[in-house]
Protein backbone atom coordinates (compact mmCIF):
# COMPACT_ATOMS: atom_id res chain seq x y z
CA UNK A 1 0.00 0.00 0.00
CA UNK A 2 1.32 3.45 -0.92
CA UNK A 3 2.48 5.70 1.89
CA UNK A 4 0.12 8.49 0.80
CA UNK A 5 -2.68 9.21 -1.64
CA UNK A 6 -1.52 12.81 -2.16
CA UNK A 7 1.83 13.23 -3.91
CA UNK A 8 1.51 16.98 -4.47
CA UNK A 9 -0.19 18.69 -1.52
CA UNK A 10 -0.38 21.98 -3.47
CA UNK A 11 -3.38 20.50 -5.25
CA UNK A 12 -5.34 21.01 -2.02
CA UNK A 13 -3.49 23.57 0.12
CA UNK A 14 -1.44 26.51 -1.06
CA UNK A 15 0.14 29.67 0.36
CA UNK A 16 0.31 32.59 -2.06
CA UNK A 17 2.24 35.82 -1.47
CA UNK A 18 1.32 38.97 -3.36
CA UNK A 19 1.70 42.74 -3.38
CA UNK A 20 -1.29 45.07 -3.41
CA UNK A 21 -2.04 47.51 -6.21
CA UNK A 22 -4.89 49.61 -4.82
CA UNK A 23 -7.08 48.69 -7.80
CA UNK A 24 -8.62 45.50 -9.20
CA UNK A 25 -5.94 42.85 -8.79
CA UNK A 26 -6.09 39.29 -10.18
CA UNK A 27 -3.88 36.92 -8.17
CA UNK A 28 -2.80 33.73 -9.95
CA UNK A 29 -1.57 30.91 -7.76
CA UNK A 30 1.95 29.66 -8.36
CA UNK A 31 1.19 26.21 -6.94
CA UNK A 32 3.25 23.26 -8.15
CA UNK A 33 0.37 21.35 -9.64
CA UNK A 34 -3.20 22.20 -8.84
CA UNK A 35 -3.96 25.82 -9.57
CA UNK A 36 -7.31 25.57 -7.84
CA UNK A 37 -10.27 27.72 -6.94
CA UNK A 38 -9.89 28.46 -3.22
CA UNK A 39 -12.91 27.34 -1.22
CA UNK A 40 -11.47 28.76 1.98
CA UNK A 41 -9.38 31.87 1.33
CA UNK A 42 -7.64 33.48 4.32
CA UNK A 43 -5.83 36.78 3.68
CA UNK A 44 -3.61 38.78 6.05
CA UNK A 45 -1.63 41.93 5.38
CA UNK A 46 1.95 41.39 6.51
CA UNK A 47 3.52 44.83 6.68
CA UNK A 48 1.03 46.65 8.90
CA UNK A 49 -1.68 46.13 11.50
CA UNK A 50 -4.80 44.81 9.78
CA UNK A 51 -7.55 42.31 10.57
CA UNK A 52 -7.61 38.94 8.84
CA UNK A 53 -10.14 38.39 6.03
CA UNK A 54 -11.65 34.93 5.54
CA UNK A 55 -13.76 34.20 2.45
CA UNK A 56 -15.61 30.93 1.90
CA UNK A 57 -16.93 29.79 -1.48
CA UNK A 58 -20.12 28.41 0.09
CA UNK A 59 -21.20 32.03 0.74
CA UNK A 60 -18.65 34.31 -0.91
CA UNK A 61 -20.85 37.40 -0.54
CA UNK A 62 -19.54 37.87 3.02
CA UNK A 63 -16.32 37.55 5.00
CA UNK A 64 -15.30 36.70 8.57
CA UNK A 65 -12.33 37.86 10.66
CA UNK A 66 -10.42 35.32 12.77
CA UNK A 67 -9.14 37.93 15.23
CA UNK A 68 -12.64 39.25 15.99
CA UNK A 69 -15.87 37.73 17.24
CA UNK A 70 -17.87 39.93 14.83
CA UNK A 71 -20.67 38.57 12.70
CA UNK A 72 -19.96 38.20 9.00
CA UNK A 73 -19.66 41.41 6.96
CA UNK A 74 -20.60 42.14 3.37
CA UNK A 75 -17.75 41.13 1.05
CA UNK A 76 -16.25 44.24 -0.53
CA UNK A 77 -12.73 42.80 -0.69
CA UNK A 78 -12.74 39.85 -3.11
CA UNK A 79 -14.50 40.22 -6.46
CA UNK A 80 -14.28 36.55 -7.37
CA UNK A 81 -12.80 33.18 -6.47
CA UNK A 82 -11.20 31.98 -9.70
CA UNK A 83 -10.15 28.63 -11.12
CA UNK A 84 -6.49 29.43 -10.45
CA UNK A 85 -6.62 32.02 -7.67
CA UNK A 86 -8.77 35.04 -6.86
CA UNK A 87 -9.48 38.62 -7.93
CA UNK A 88 -9.36 41.46 -5.40
CA UNK A 89 -11.19 44.76 -5.28
CA UNK A 90 -9.52 47.87 -3.90
CA UNK A 91 -9.86 47.93 -0.04
CA UNK A 92 -6.56 48.30 1.79
CA UNK A 93 -7.37 45.31 4.01
CA UNK A 94 -6.49 43.03 1.08
CA UNK A 95 -5.04 45.27 -1.64
CA UNK A 96 -3.27 48.41 -0.39
CA UNK A 97 -0.87 49.79 -2.98
CA UNK A 98 2.59 48.29 -2.28
CA UNK A 99 1.21 46.39 0.73
CA UNK A 100 2.49 42.85 1.24
CA UNK A 101 0.05 40.00 1.85
CA UNK A 102 -0.22 36.27 2.44
CA UNK A 103 -3.18 34.19 1.26
CA UNK A 104 -3.65 30.69 2.70
CA UNK A 105 -6.00 28.58 0.59
CA UNK A 106 -7.76 25.24 0.97
CA UNK A 107 -9.68 23.33 -1.68
CA UNK A 108 -13.00 21.69 -0.83
CA UNK A 109 -15.41 21.04 -3.71
CA UNK A 110 -15.12 24.14 -5.89
CA UNK A 111 -18.10 25.78 -4.22
CA UNK A 112 -20.51 22.97 -5.15
CA UNK A 113 -22.60 22.00 -2.12
CA UNK A 114 -25.11 19.30 -1.26
CA UNK A 115 -27.66 18.70 1.46
CA UNK A 116 -26.58 16.32 4.23
CA UNK A 117 -29.12 14.57 6.47
CA UNK A 118 -26.71 12.43 8.53
CA UNK A 119 -27.31 14.57 11.62
CA UNK A 120 -30.38 15.75 13.49
CA UNK A 121 -29.81 19.13 11.78
CA UNK A 122 -29.79 19.08 7.98
CA UNK A 123 -26.54 20.71 6.89
CA UNK A 124 -25.18 22.03 3.60
CA UNK A 125 -21.79 20.52 2.82
CA UNK A 126 -19.02 20.81 0.29
CA UNK A 127 -16.55 18.05 0.98
CA UNK A 128 -13.17 16.97 -0.35
CA UNK A 129 -12.76 13.46 1.00
CA UNK A 130 -9.35 13.04 -0.65
CA UNK A 131 -7.91 15.99 1.28
CA UNK A 132 -10.02 15.44 4.40
CA UNK A 133 -11.63 18.89 4.36
CA UNK A 134 -15.25 19.99 4.31
CA UNK A 135 -17.08 23.27 4.76
CA UNK A 136 -20.39 22.86 6.54
CA UNK A 137 -23.16 25.40 7.03
CA UNK A 138 -26.16 24.85 9.27
CA UNK A 139 -28.87 26.68 11.21
CA UNK A 140 -28.74 26.35 14.98
CA UNK A 141 -31.54 24.91 17.11
CA UNK A 142 -30.42 25.87 20.62
CA UNK A 143 -30.73 22.22 21.71
CA UNK A 144 -28.23 19.35 21.70
CA UNK A 145 -27.86 18.22 18.10
CA UNK A 146 -25.68 16.44 15.54
CA UNK A 147 -24.49 17.84 12.22
CA UNK A 148 -23.28 15.87 9.18
CA UNK A 149 -19.83 16.76 7.82
CA UNK A 150 -19.53 14.55 4.72
CA UNK A 151 -15.94 13.30 5.14
CA UNK A 152 -16.51 9.63 5.95
CA UNK A 153 -13.72 9.77 8.56
CA UNK A 154 -13.63 10.98 12.17
CA UNK A 155 -12.67 14.64 12.45
CA UNK A 156 -9.37 15.63 14.04
CA UNK A 157 -9.90 19.41 13.97
CA UNK A 158 -13.16 21.36 14.00
CA UNK A 159 -13.65 25.15 13.84
CA UNK A 160 -17.09 26.75 14.23
CA UNK A 161 -18.32 30.35 13.94
CA UNK A 162 -21.79 31.85 14.36
CA UNK A 163 -22.10 33.93 11.20
CA UNK A 164 -25.00 36.07 12.39
CA UNK A 165 -23.81 37.21 15.82
CA UNK A 166 -20.84 38.58 17.71
CA UNK A 167 -19.86 35.19 19.12
CA UNK A 168 -16.35 33.84 19.53
CA UNK A 169 -14.79 31.29 17.21
CA UNK A 170 -14.85 27.78 18.73
CA UNK A 171 -12.16 25.12 18.21
CA UNK A 172 -13.08 21.63 19.40
CA UNK A 173 -9.69 20.74 20.83
CA UNK A 174 -11.12 17.93 22.94
CA UNK A 175 -10.64 15.73 19.86
CA UNK A 176 -6.88 15.98 20.32
CA UNK A 177 -6.48 16.51 24.05
CA UNK A 178 -8.85 13.79 25.22
CA UNK A 179 -10.13 16.23 27.83
CA UNK A 180 -13.90 16.22 27.95
CA UNK A 181 -15.64 19.02 26.16
CA UNK A 182 -13.00 21.75 26.18
CA UNK A 183 -12.50 24.56 23.72
CA UNK A 184 -10.08 27.12 22.33
CA UNK A 185 -11.00 30.34 20.55
CA UNK A 186 -9.37 31.77 17.40
CA UNK A 187 -10.24 35.33 18.33
CA UNK A 188 -8.51 35.34 21.74
CA UNK A 189 -5.21 34.22 23.25
CA UNK A 190 -7.00 32.49 26.15
CA UNK A 191 -5.83 29.11 27.35
CA UNK A 192 -7.80 25.90 26.91
CA UNK A 193 -11.02 25.88 28.90
CA UNK A 194 -13.56 23.22 29.78
CA UNK A 195 -15.91 21.68 30.37
CA UNK A 196 -18.31 23.71 28.25
CA UNK A 197 -21.65 23.37 26.54
CA UNK A 198 -20.44 23.62 22.96
CA UNK A 199 -19.83 19.97 22.04
CA UNK A 200 -21.70 17.69 24.47
CA UNK A 201 -18.43 16.01 25.52
CA UNK A 202 -18.69 13.64 22.54
CA UNK A 203 -16.08 13.39 19.79
CA UNK A 204 -17.20 13.50 16.14
CA UNK A 205 -17.83 10.27 14.28
CA UNK A 206 -17.08 9.50 10.63
CA UNK A 207 -20.39 11.12 9.69
CA UNK A 208 -21.40 13.76 12.30
CA UNK A 209 -20.12 16.17 14.92
CA UNK A 210 -21.96 16.96 18.14
CA UNK A 211 -23.02 20.45 19.21
CA UNK A 212 -24.49 21.51 22.53
CA UNK A 213 -26.57 24.46 23.59
CA UNK A 214 -23.93 27.22 23.67
CA UNK A 215 -24.69 30.19 21.44
CA UNK A 216 -21.41 30.26 19.54
CA UNK A 217 -21.99 26.72 18.25
CA UNK A 218 -25.78 26.48 18.18
CA UNK A 219 -27.77 29.69 18.56
CA UNK A 220 -31.37 28.97 17.60
CA UNK A 221 -32.13 30.38 14.17
CA UNK A 222 -28.59 31.63 13.51
CA UNK A 223 -26.47 30.55 10.55
CA UNK A 224 -23.22 28.82 11.51
CA UNK A 225 -20.17 27.64 9.59
CA UNK A 226 -17.93 24.71 10.45
CA UNK A 227 -14.51 24.02 8.93
CA UNK A 228 -13.97 20.27 9.32
CA UNK A 229 -10.69 18.38 8.99
CA UNK A 230 -9.92 14.68 8.94
CA UNK A 231 -6.29 13.57 8.97
CA UNK A 232 -4.73 12.37 5.69
CA UNK A 233 -1.41 10.56 5.90
CA UNK A 234 1.39 12.49 4.22
CA UNK A 235 -0.76 15.61 3.79
CA UNK A 236 -2.28 16.81 7.09
CA UNK A 237 -1.61 16.28 10.78
CA UNK A 238 -3.35 17.55 13.90
CA UNK A 239 -1.97 16.79 17.34
CA UNK A 240 -0.39 17.88 20.58
CA UNK A 241 3.15 18.06 21.94
CA UNK A 242 4.93 19.05 25.14
CA UNK A 243 7.52 21.81 25.21
CA UNK A 244 11.01 21.58 26.72
CA UNK A 245 11.94 25.24 27.20
CA UNK A 246 15.14 24.90 25.17
CA UNK A 247 16.56 26.36 21.97
CA UNK A 248 17.11 22.70 21.09
CA UNK A 249 13.36 22.31 21.16
CA UNK A 250 10.80 19.58 20.83
CA UNK A 251 10.65 17.66 17.53
CA UNK A 252 7.13 16.93 16.26
CA UNK A 253 6.69 14.13 13.72
CA UNK A 254 4.09 14.84 11.03
CA UNK A 255 5.01 12.36 8.29
CA UNK A 256 5.70 15.14 5.78
CA UNK A 257 7.73 18.27 5.10
CA UNK A 258 5.44 21.04 6.39
CA UNK A 259 4.17 23.90 4.29
CA UNK A 260 2.13 25.42 7.13
CA UNK A 261 2.12 24.99 10.92
CA UNK A 262 -0.36 26.62 13.31
CA UNK A 263 0.35 26.32 17.06
CA UNK A 264 -1.50 27.30 20.25
CA UNK A 265 -0.54 26.73 23.89
CA UNK A 266 -3.24 24.83 25.75
CA UNK A 267 -2.27 25.99 29.22
CA UNK A 268 -1.01 29.54 28.69
CA UNK A 269 -2.69 32.81 27.79
CA UNK A 270 -0.59 33.49 24.72
CA UNK A 271 -1.11 34.12 21.01
CA UNK A 272 -1.73 31.61 18.25
CA UNK A 273 1.22 31.43 15.84
CA UNK A 274 1.36 30.45 12.17
CA UNK A 275 4.41 30.05 9.96
CA UNK A 276 4.65 28.76 6.40
CA UNK A 277 7.16 27.80 3.71
CA UNK A 278 6.31 30.73 1.42
CA UNK A 279 7.22 33.54 3.81
CA UNK A 280 10.25 31.54 5.07
CA UNK A 281 12.00 29.48 2.40
CA UNK A 282 14.97 28.53 4.62
CA UNK A 283 15.31 27.26 8.19
CA UNK A 284 14.61 28.39 10.74
CA UNK A 285 11.15 29.67 9.89
CA UNK A 286 10.80 32.91 11.82
CA UNK A 287 8.11 35.10 10.24
CA UNK A 288 5.07 34.89 12.46
CA UNK A 289 1.46 35.97 12.18
CA UNK A 290 -1.23 35.41 14.79
CA UNK A 291 -4.82 34.44 13.81
CA UNK A 292 -6.10 36.06 17.02
CA UNK A 293 -4.35 39.40 16.41
CA UNK A 294 -4.29 42.12 13.75
CA UNK A 295 -0.54 42.62 14.35
CA UNK A 296 1.89 43.00 11.48
CA UNK A 297 4.20 40.12 10.65
CA UNK A 298 7.36 40.03 12.72
CA UNK A 299 10.55 38.04 12.50
CA UNK A 300 10.22 35.67 15.37
CA UNK A 301 13.80 35.90 16.52
CA UNK A 302 12.18 38.75 18.48
CA UNK A 303 9.99 36.23 20.28
CA UNK A 304 12.09 33.03 20.22
CA UNK A 305 9.45 30.89 18.49
CA UNK A 306 11.50 29.87 15.46
CA UNK A 307 11.03 26.39 14.05
CA UNK A 308 12.76 24.19 11.46
CA UNK A 309 10.64 22.58 8.75
CA UNK A 310 12.14 19.11 8.27
CA UNK A 311 11.43 16.30 5.80
CA UNK A 312 9.22 14.48 8.32
CA UNK A 313 8.04 17.14 10.77
CA UNK A 314 9.07 20.33 12.54
CA UNK A 315 11.44 21.17 15.36
CA UNK A 316 11.14 24.14 17.72
CA UNK A 317 14.25 26.34 17.85
CA UNK A 318 13.33 28.72 20.65
CA UNK A 319 11.75 28.82 24.09
CA UNK A 320 8.83 31.15 23.39
CA UNK A 321 5.78 30.86 25.61
CA UNK A 322 3.69 30.54 22.46
CA UNK A 323 5.45 27.40 21.19
CA UNK A 324 7.96 25.82 23.58
CA UNK A 325 7.94 27.33 27.06
CA UNK A 326 8.79 24.34 29.25
CA UNK A 327 8.12 20.67 29.91
CA UNK A 328 5.06 21.68 31.93
CA UNK A 329 3.39 23.30 28.92
CA UNK A 330 1.34 21.56 26.27
CA UNK A 331 0.50 22.70 22.74
CA UNK A 332 -1.95 21.92 19.98
CA UNK A 333 -0.96 22.13 16.30
CA UNK A 334 -2.44 21.98 12.81
CA UNK A 335 -0.08 21.24 9.90
CA UNK A 336 -0.29 20.80 6.13
CA UNK A 337 2.35 19.38 3.81
CA UNK A 338 4.68 20.69 1.17
CA UNK A 339 5.73 17.14 0.32
CA UNK A 340 4.92 13.75 1.91
CA UNK A 341 7.79 12.04 3.73
CA UNK A 342 7.58 9.41 0.98
CA UNK A 343 5.41 9.76 -2.13
CA UNK A 344 3.18 6.99 -3.50
CA UNK A 345 6.01 6.22 -5.95
CA UNK A 346 8.59 5.93 -3.15
CA UNK A 347 10.17 9.37 -3.68
CA UNK A 348 11.37 10.77 -0.31
CA UNK A 349 11.04 14.38 0.77
CA UNK A 350 14.25 16.36 0.73
CA UNK A 351 15.44 18.62 3.52
CA UNK A 352 15.28 22.39 3.21
SSE layout:
Blueprint: E1 13-19, E2 25-28, E3 40-45, E4 53-56, E5 62-64, E6 73-74, E7 78-82, E8 85-88, H1 92-95, E9 100-106, E10 114-116, E11 123-128, E12 133-139, E13 145-148, E14 157-162, E15 170-171, H2 174-177, E16 208-211, H3 215-218, E17 223-229, E18 236-242, E19 251-253, E20 256-265, E21 273-276, E22 287-288, E23 298-299, E24 307-310, E25 313-316, E26 330-340
Antiparallel strand pairs: 1-9, 2-8, 3-4, 3-9, 4-5, 5-6, 7-8, 10-11, 11-12, 12-17, 13-16, 14-15, 14-17, 18-26, 19-25, 20-21, 20-26, 22-23, 24-25
How would you characterize the overall build of this protein?
The protein contains 3 helices and 26 strands. The protein is globular, with a radius of gyration of 19 Å. A hairpin with a 5-residue loop joins strand 4 (53-56) and strand 5. The protein folds into 3 domains: 9-106, no CATH class; 114-229, no CATH class; 237-340, no CATH class. It has a 6-stranded antiparallel beta sheet. It has a 6-stranded antiparallel beta sheet with strand order 10-11-12-17-14-15. Strands 18-26-20-21 form a 4-stranded antiparallel beta sheet, with no helix packed on it. The model has no long low-confidence stretch (mean pLDDT 92). It is mainly beta and 352 residues long.
Amino acid sequence: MAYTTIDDPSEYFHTQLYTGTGSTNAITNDANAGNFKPDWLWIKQRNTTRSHRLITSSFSSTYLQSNLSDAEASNDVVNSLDTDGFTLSSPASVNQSSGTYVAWQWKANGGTTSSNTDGSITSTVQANTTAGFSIVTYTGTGSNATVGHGLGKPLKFLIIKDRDASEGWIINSQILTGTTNGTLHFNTDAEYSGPSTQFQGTNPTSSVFYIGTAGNANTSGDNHIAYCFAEIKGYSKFGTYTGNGSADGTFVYTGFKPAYVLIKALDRTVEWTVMDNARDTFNPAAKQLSPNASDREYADAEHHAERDFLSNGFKLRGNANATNASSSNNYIYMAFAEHPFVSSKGVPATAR
